[in-house]
Amino acid sequence: MKKIFIRINNFIKNPLQPLVSANNPERGQVIIIVAMAMIGLVAFVGLAIDTGLVFVGQGRLRRAVDAAALAAASNFRQGYDIDELRDSAYELLVLNGVIDPLADPTLVSQVDTCLSLPEDPELCVGEEEGGRKLVRVDATGTVDLAFLSVIGINDVSISASATGEAASMDLVLVIDTSDSMARDTGGAGQADNDPSVCNLDNSCYPFHDVKDAADYFVSQLVFPYDRVAVIAFDREARIYDFVDLEFEAEAADVDDLGGFSNDLTAIGNAIGGMKVYDPRKPPSPWTGDCDDMPAGWPGPCRRYISTIYQGMDCPHFFATGNPTDCTTTNIGEGVYDTGNLLASDGRREAHWVVVLLTDGAANSSLNGSYCPDVWWGDPFCRSNLEANWKRYCFDNSYTWCLKPKIDGGPGGELDDSTDRKYNSDDFARDMFDYVGINQDATIFTIGLGDQVVTSLPIVDGQGAGERLLAYAASDAVGAGLYIQSASSGDLQAAFDQILDRIATRLSK
């Protein structure tokens, strides 16, 4: 045997050397062994190449099916047509070479949802909570073999399956209802601009357009999979209770609220029930003219001169210099209540989304302690010097610096002995941190009109409102999108941008 290996080695070194002679019959055995080894080597190489072809084909099919599942899931909208989802998937399969564009796609692929296969346990998941928006794509294909075709194995069948999921959402609409939402109702001095007048017939503008755009937006969601909560804010925030069918001003009982609904009609009623801030209502229920308001009465009032409406006024501010009872854009509390609602009632498996719309900048907060006298000058409750504008926060142990209003809310507490400069803008930023960073909610913000970009202080060309909204939607906080809408006529386009950004994902 040793001689045989020596001869094989010599053959490798000098293949032209004669191996067979009449005097050495063992050399014939070497030829047979070498031939068998070569055949085995060729077979091994061929098998490896064909196996590689199969793996490459399988990976290519898998990627194509993944893309098709995501494309189909991205079209999972309210009132969707299963054929539209299938067309989206087929288009991606054709582009990836899985389907012959001239052939019947159903011969090699299948696209299904719970609607088409209502008994499928993989697609009909969590139906008791509204379900999940799942789309499954199955596809088959063949891989042509290179070497095994010699022995009659010409191709191998492969298959792949992917389930795309359009994120089921718990979405909170946070809408500004401050008195400026009635500014475009009539001409200057017109009584129609008085919220107590235009609220009666839903004719407050731009608020009428805001509600129409919000209605359109929620109509594009997918019910019963998605759920929506509605929060209105002006001097205070109010959560709509879908059980009692009214806005609740006190968030301390947030656990008892019917804060979310997957009923489009009920959600539409909640949006339609929002009113522009009216000083005749609590917490400052003064029904008369500002001139008739008793000395020291807190809160804004409606000022008329010779029956001509002048807008909101606040005599208490002129008497004391303290604006904390007068301001009506409490963005911070609106976001604060959003966080508490998500914490108490949000589905853990759902995508948490916040959409906040305002036409101004933060100038109000939970109570007067967040508007110390250092910020009593215009702009109210915000840093008023461009050069010194900064964020004030005294509790470095937390992302936020605010004593919690209810259990489970933000932690930290301001030091009452400190000369505080913590203001309404700081409060709003801390609440966006609470919701975006700590609760991992995606935050979209819409700034309506000029006041967002012209609100003081203006820093690096950005108004206070614009800076706040951009901060909330930044990658570091809400990872969403800030949209500036010049007029209420642009709001539907703004909401369309948000719909396009709501993510899909591969479930499996």
CATH level 4 superfamily of the largest domain? von Willebrand factor, type A domain
Tally of helical runs: 12
Q: What level of helicity do the residues show?
A: 25-40%
Alpha-carbon distance between the two ends: 57 Å
Q: Write down the Rg.
A: 34 Å
Largest sheet: 7 strands, mixed
Write the topology of this structure.
Layout: H1 2-13, H2 26-73, H3 82-95, E1 109-112, E2 133-144, E3 155-166, E4 169-176, H4 195-198, H5 207-219, E5 227-233, E6 237-241, E7 246-248, H6 264-272, E8 301-305, E9 308-313, H7 315-320, H8 331-345, E10 351-358, H9 424-438, E11 442-448, H10 451-454, H11 464-473, E12 481-485, H12 491-501, E13 504-506
Parallel strand pairs: 4-5, 4-10, 10-11, 11-12
Antiparallel strand pairs: 1-2, 2-3, 3-13, 5-6, 6-7, 8-9
Helix pairs in contact: 2-3, 5-6, 5-12, 8-9, 9-11
Can you describe what's shown?
It comes from Candidatus Desulfolinea nitratireducens. Keywords: Membrane, Transmembrane, Transmembrane helix. This is VWA domain-containing protein. This protein has about 500 residues and is α/β, with parallel strands linked by helices. The protein folds into 2 domains: about 25-165, no CATH class; about 170-505, Rossmann fold. It is built from 12 helices and 13 strands. The protein has helices at about 1-15, 25-75, 80-95, 195-200, 205-220, 265-270, 315-320, 330-345, 425-440, 450-455, 465-475, 490-500; strands at about 110, 135-145, 155-165, 170-175, 225-235, 235-240, 245-250, 300-305, 310-315, 350-360, 440-450, 480-485, 505. The strands form 3 sheets. It has a 7-stranded mixed β-sheet, sandwiched between helices. Strands 1-2-3-13 form a 4-stranded antiparallel β-sheet, covered by helices on one side. A two-stranded antiparallel sheet has the order 8-9. A hairpin with a 2-residue loop joins β8 and β9 (about 310-315). α2 (about 25-75) runs antiparallel to α3, α5 (about 205-220) runs antiparallel to α6 and α8 runs parallel beside α9 (about 425-440). The longest helix has about 50 residues, at about 25-75. It is elongated.
